[in-house]
Amino acid sequence: MSTRELSASRLRRHLGAAQAVWPGRLPALSAEERELLIDWLRGSADTRPWQSLLQTAGPTRIELADALSQKALEAGLATRHERSEHGRWWSVKLCWVELEALQAALGLATRSDREARTAALAQRLEVLMADELVGEAAQALAEARMATAAAEARAALLEALCRWVTEGRSGLRRDFALHLGHTKAIAAGEWGWLERHFDLPALGIEAFAPTLTVAGDAALCWPDGLRLDLGAAPFITLPTEALQGLQRVDSPPARWWLIENRASFEKQAARRVRGDALVWIAGRPTRAWSEAMARLIALAPAPAAISADADPAGIEIALAAAGPWEQAGLRWAATAMEPEHLGRPGLQPLGRYDRAVLERLAGRTLPHELAALRDALAARGVKAEQEGWL
Fold first, then answer.
1. Which of 112, 203, 249, 259 could form a disulfide with 265 if both were Cys (CB 3.0 to 4.6 A apart)?
2. Quick one: which of 337, 368, 338, 374 has its CA closest to 354?
3. 387 alpha carbon, distance to own chain's centre
4. Cα 381 from Cα 376, distance rounded (Å)
5. What is the DSSP letter of 13?
6. Who contacts 34 (Cβ-Cβ below 8 Å, separation ≥6)?
């Protein structure tokens, strides 16, 4: 037997290869031996108890395990600790020689690979957390305990979402999946995760055509005598593309009221007074939403009241929703976003993402009411959802 004793006593001994071929080259291995060796080398343990290796081999590979252990020992892949019982030497554990080099030779990920991968993921998430669109979701992902591969896949979704919005894209879910590579690039579970963190239609990713939800007493008129009276229902949802063909708006509103929270929108739509037209913001406004609003106010110009959550993201949403009014030179003002709402019970503390948004807002010149909310959020460290009072 081509081994030598590295240390020995009457009851214990530590064996190594007499003339090791490792590191340098792997010994000749059968397909079955190579498969079992790969099973043994998964993980980061330099030393493996023999009973653990036998359990990995299973009852059908016991003889193969004995043969592979001997081959690994003689080739210098591992050293072996043994103990003597009733005049016979029994294996206690194998100690891998240069584990990471051995794993790399067999195409396995090493501890260094995993640590580098984890560090790279942390760096990607750090960048994403600084982004106003995906920062909150990136923070939740960074704090979640999940496999690195799964977290990397979700980080890739967030990165793709940033590119999608930056490029002003809009389309169906399959279009977004194609943006990642192919139409089946996103599993149902990942769509569910995205839906929990984002209003996908508001970001131009629709299961179907992008829409705008509006309430009021105006009548929308298209060519050829086509007409839709908004007062026929508490609120109506229309494809944004159809609004681009509008010819005129009869009985136009005296005020547009934009509301972020869906429950608040529906409540106020049921209570609306004549002269008001209400629009659901549905999260961060998309290009399709903004273009639809621009068409409406081009035909029915009126000032806007904008209501979003009393939190840092709500301030940014209000500013984005005001875009069509800014471009049209029309007045707008935030309403129901006063700092006193931060004195209510049951508020949530500001998270890392919230504070990053506040840092961005600190350098901006804001309308008085939004500046007051920004300062109150920073001073009190809490945030509130508008559903509590609107």
1. 259
2. 374
3. 25
4. 8
5. E
6. 106
Q: State pTM to two decimals.
A: 0.56
Long-range contacts of range 248-251, CB-CB < 8 Å, 24 or more positions apart? 248/221, 248/299, 249/218, 249/219, 249/220, 249/221, 249/296, 249/299, 249/300, 250/218, 250/219, 250/221, 251/217, 251/218, 251/219
CA distance 157 to 192: 12
Could you tell me the sign of the dihedral formed by the alpha carbons of 145, 149, 153, 156, in that order? positive
Total count of residues recorded for the chain: 390
- Tens-digit pLDDT profile for residues 184-222: 678 888 999 998 888 887 787 877 777 899 999 999 999
**What's the CATH fold of domain 211-388?**
Dna Topoisomerase Vi A Subunit; Chain: A, domain 2 (3.40.1360)
Model confidence pLDDT, tens digit, residues 243-279: 999 999 999 999 999 999 999 999 999 999 999 999 9
Distances (CA, A) of 126 to 131, 134, 140, 353: 9, 11, 12, 11
Region of 238 (left: φ > 0; alpha: ψ -120 to 50; beta: rest) is beta
**Which residues are within 8 A (CB) of 202 and not within 5 positions of it... i.e. 6 or more apart?**
281, 282, 283, 284, 285, 286, 289
Mapped onto helix, strand or coil, the DSSP state of residue 261 is coil
Domain ranges for the chain, please list them: 3-105, 111-206, 211-388
Q: Tell me the C-alpha to C-alpha distance, in Å, between residue 217 and each of 6, 27, 226, 250, 263.
A: 92, 83, 16, 9, 20
Cα distance between residue 139 and residue 315, in whole Å? 19
Distance CA 290, CA 256 (A): 14
* CA separation for the pair 201, 208 (Å, rounded): 9
Q: How far is the C-alpha of 43 from the C-alpha of 135, rounded, in Å?
A: 32
Distances 187 to 121, 191, 203, 356 between C-alpha atoms, Å: 21, 6, 19, 30
Instruction: Taking the CA atoms of 53, 55, 58 and 59 in sequence, report the sign of the dihedral they define.
Output: positive
> CB–CB of 244/292 below 8 Å?
yes
Strands (E), 322-369: 332-334, 348-349
